[in-house]
Amino acid sequence: MNVVSGTPRDIVFTRHGARRGVGWLREAFAMLWKARVPWLLLLLAYYIALGVINLVPVIGTLAVPLLKPVFAVGFLAAAWTQERGGVPHIRQLFQGFRSNLRALLVIGVVFVVGVTLSVMATALIDGGKLLDLMSNPPPADMDRKDAAARVESVLLDSRVQLGMLFAALCALPVVLAVWFAPGLIVFQDVGAGTALGASLRAAMANWRPLAVYGLVVFLFAGILPAVAGGVLMLITSGLGEGARAVLVYAVLLPYLTLFVATLHISDYVSYRDIFHAGETLAPLPARS
Q: How many CB atoms lie within 10 A of CB 19?
């Protein structure tokens, strides 16, 4: 573990070993398990809020990704409260709207623009096939099998797959710059530009634990649910298609819900570990 700093204007952060990527998830799950009901209620409120915003005509779809850094502050505030001995509460979900909202919205804009440009960059590799599929989806009256076949033929194209990989590489710096930015804005009271730069530098210095973190997330959120779903479908082959699907969802949905909640909490755990390593928080004052 190495503390990294530069000029007095730089934000100090700590460089960790690869194993901390697993530690962040383990510690986040421990926090979740100690306050399961409050965290799950907070997560439910978050997705309800996003769903309501998404229903707003014209601007809803754009507003959702723009506001995600704002809502991220709510999870950071809830985890900060729990670390001080309190309990997460739904009202904390909207803390970001009261904490340097302008800078948080700038983070959202940077994320949306960066990802959009990265997706558009796929045209340099696949000649615009992926963009054409996204802008011209199969018509609603098209046979479902034909529509699925059309999508599958595009996604299985080697050039499209290479383009998607290129887009992911292009988007990576944006993702890293945004990763810790909400925490830096709220807890260290810095501007959007400073937060983006510090987040990017700290993420690059901690690429090993972040890579391990990403691999573990891929394992638990991608591979394990796919394998478990496949096994469930096989052992319930005697049931109808609808009943099998319901069973798979009944088994996997609680697991994925807990995992998603763990990911939100891990944002706080990793932020604290990198930018405030070794620091302890004063407990919340006792209520009289």
A: 10
